[in-house]
Design a protein that fits this description.
The chain has one domain: Rhopdopsin 7-helix transmembrane proteins (Up-down Bundle). It contains 11 helices and 3 strands; from the N terminus they run βαααβαααβααααα. It has a 3-stranded mixed beta sheet with strand order 2-1-3. α1 packs across α11. The relative contact order is 0.14.
């Protein structure tokens, strides 16, 4: 279907066209990108090397950090480079790859957050059956289901993109390729495609958000029968997860659950879930988790000890 298109590349306007502001964007988002990579890779290495962090919660946290890293790197590096260019272009095929990557790792993050909520529910509400229900085999199977679901969702986005005929113009008023801004460039009626977009991406964001909030509400309500120390630890963990859910799902719901109209604030709101959340996740999970902080300190001391031996 690409052969029916006259457009072979798109021009991305980015966050701003002002030269001074583009330099500011370059510096800020370079720091954000480095912080995201450093924070998430630190969590990945810590969980992988620590013997104390092999429970299902950290199994899912490992893949959440991995998803965050991939999700951020499919957008942020190109955005940083574009801030240095007077004219930022992306080929049609690269645009398709970015749409796939964005939705694959974005939906994977949502599914992993749901699995983490399931893990917390079982751990708090059914502690005696926890090891049986959340075995390594079950966790692995749940993760495979999340990967398959993300792939199906992303392929749907690609199919919808190929259904759009592009005959010009080719200027995307955004800093990355996504189906919403592409709908504005299609030279055909996009009502049906937008309906599929809302029923696909919009439904995933909204339904997942409702499921997660309901799950944590049930979990917090069940804590009334626990000891003060157990309640404090569980509340701290749940609050961390709820913060992540709101920061990621809120902007996604705003973007993907409405008709094909764009607002001036869309690009800024997109920054929250494409750049902000992958940066904040490591800080939220490390600052509020004593086990992760202890494992990181242990890893750091071990590293220093090895350096001293050399």
């Amino acid at each position: 279907m690409q052969l029916n298109n006259n457009v072979t590349e798109f021009i991305l306007l980015g966050l701003t066209q002002d030269p001074l502001r583009k330099k500011i964007v370059f510096v800020i988002f370079l720091l954000f990108c480095l912080g995201t990579l450093l924070g998430n890779l630190l969590i990945i290495v810590t969980i992988k090397t620590s013997q104390a962090l092999h429970s299902p919660m950290y199994f899912f946290l490992f893949y959440l950090s991995l998803s965050d890293t991939c999700f951020s790197t499919c957008i942020a590096p190109r955005m940083i480079v574009y801030a240095l260019l007077s004219k930022a272009t992306i080929s049609f095929s690269e645009c398709i790859i970015q749409v796939f990557s964005l939705h694959f790792f974005g939906s994977l993050e949502i599914f992993i957050l749901i699995l983490m909520a399931v893990d917390r529910y079982v751990a708090i509400c059914k502690p005696l059956q926890y090891k049986t229900i959340m075995s390594h085999q079950v966790c692995g199977m749940l993760l495979v289901v999340a990967w398959v679901g993300s792939c199906v969702h992303s392929l749907t986005q690609i199919f919808l993109t190929f259904c759009l005929p592009f005959c010009g113009p080719n200027v995307i008023d955004h800093y990355f390729c996504d189906l919403q801004p592409l709908l504005k460039l299609a030279c055909s009626d996009t009502y049906v495609v937008n309906l599929f977009l809302v029923s696909n991406s919009g439904a995933i964001c909204t339904v997942s958000f409702v499921i997660l909030i309901c799950s944590y509400t049930i979990i917090l309500h069940s804590l009334r029968n626990h000891s003060a120390e157990g309640r404090r630890k569980a509340v701290s963990t749940c609050i961390s997860h709820i913060i992540v859910v709101i920061l990621f799902s809120g902007p996604c719901i705003f973007i993907y659950t409405r008709p094909a109209t764009t607002f001036p604030m869309d690009k800024i709101i997109s920054v929250f879930y494409t750049i902000g959340t992958p940066l904040l996740n490591p800080m939220i999970y490390t600052l509020r988790n004593t086990e992760v902080k202890y494992a990181m300190k242990k890893l750091w001391r071990k590293r220093l000890f090895l350096d001293d031996l050399r």
